[in-house]
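step: validate -> pass
step: tokenize input -> pass
step: predict -> running
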Amino acid sequence: MKQEKTTVVEHHNFQGEYRILRLAAPEIGPLVKPGQFLHLLIPQLGERILRRPFSIYKADAEGVGILYKPVGRGTESMRSLQAGDTVDIIGPLGNGYPELAAGKVPVLVAGGYGNAALYLKAKELKTKGVAFFGGRTAEDILCVEEFKKLGWDVRPTTNDGSLGVAGLVTDAFDPWMEEQDASTLELFVCGPTPMLKAMGDRAMQYDFTAWLSMDENMACGVGACLTCVIKRKTADGEWEWARCCKDGPVFESREIIWEE
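step: predict -> pass
step: emit ->
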């Protein structure tokens, strides 16, 4: 983990309301592993001093890129960032996705712009499989061509039926799953909590391994404030609090105790 004063290299619209922010971060970029995140200090927020966590979309020796959607005061403020501006970031943070187990076929599952967090994993994996992407509309299904260029079979779903299968991501995944040998599969998942739980339930049902990137509010990003804790099973059958920012954000689905 490093703190780095970075420079905005580029900042532009990507698709619909989604935007890409590219930062020159030569100290952090080379350290990034798929599934890790950055904590970014957003300028021009006055008294609001808490950093914001962002999944790392792309990373290399020169820097990092994030893909985001302005949804609140913090991310709306980011619209003003221009090439040459300075941004303070901490990263890479958290534990990302593990290596694919020997002999397994990878499957990616993402909701909304969760697929941005899966791009580095998709690029890293030598074995390619199926990628299920879900969103509200076609505008919310991101990076399809980029994943296809990497060799992935991309299968989108949209709530309104404007692209791919109409419905939730599980409406495409479930019929496909019925035709698979579950023992050959390993899933890498990122998205909203209801979707994460749905895929965790299926991991239990079909007995496959699913790695979930937990979507919890993170205030400090380094494990100190305990705002992002979840319940995790222990080896002795009990449970403990786990910090999504420090112990995660990626957990194996069988570890998680879901709150009702």
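step: describe -> Residues 170 and 207 are 17 Å apart (CA to CA).
step: cleanup -> pass
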